[in-house]
Amino acid sequence: MEQVIKHNAVVKAVDAGVVRVTIVQSSACSGCAARKMCNSSEAKEKDVDVLTSNAERYRVGQEVVLEGRLSDGRYAAIVAYGLPLLLLLVILVAGIKLTGSEVLGALFALASVALYYIVIFLFFRQRLQQRFSFRIK
Asked: How far apart are CA 103 and CA 105, in angstroms?
């Protein structure tokens, strides 16, 4: 069975095809009864745009539940952190071997990671946005 991530959210704005909701991302201890006396409790509000074909069903201030697949979160972490790290290490080692200079190897490695993120942004942003979207339940 597929694991699902759920967040309670409040609708902040409704546009054609997009519902902007605010979720409260809280730390592990924010649900604790002693959180008011403790300085380590944190809570952050984050806005999330949810693509939907029936945005007119939602009203500003309405409470909703967002759902996302856990596997999407893992895939996003690989695309955002794992692949660039692997690319950085491979280009760094290859750059040092080919040029004999650690400085040039490091510059090539950093440039390759920058190029990776530019390519992702320019060519794959829409596809990734559709893949990693939350749904309103």
From this structure: 5
